[in-house]
Design a protein that fits this description.
flat
Length: about 110
Amino acid sequence: MSNELFKIAEGLHLMSEGVRSLAEQSGCGCCKEMSESVEHTVASEEGHGETEEKQPQTIQVTIEEVREVMANKSQDGKTQQVKALLRKYGAEKLSGVQPEQYKALLSDAKAL
């Protein structure tokens, strides 16, 4: 069940990034104010409960998540860059990439 919740959370995160990007492109200026407000709220919440021991969370990235991002990049005309990324991780196909490298590969793919 936690895997499904993670997928939902990741989807919501990606949606919020997209909405924020669109709002920033509109040039309305409201995003900067909202972003500063959120940063302030997060910073003040982080100060509470410092005595509690924080558990490090490892985020598992699935091959499906990586495949989706890389397919979108390829469709955007970045096929050569996608292939170069695969070679960087020692593979000719996504299935040849080691699962422990998915997170880094996903990050690199999003940066294309």
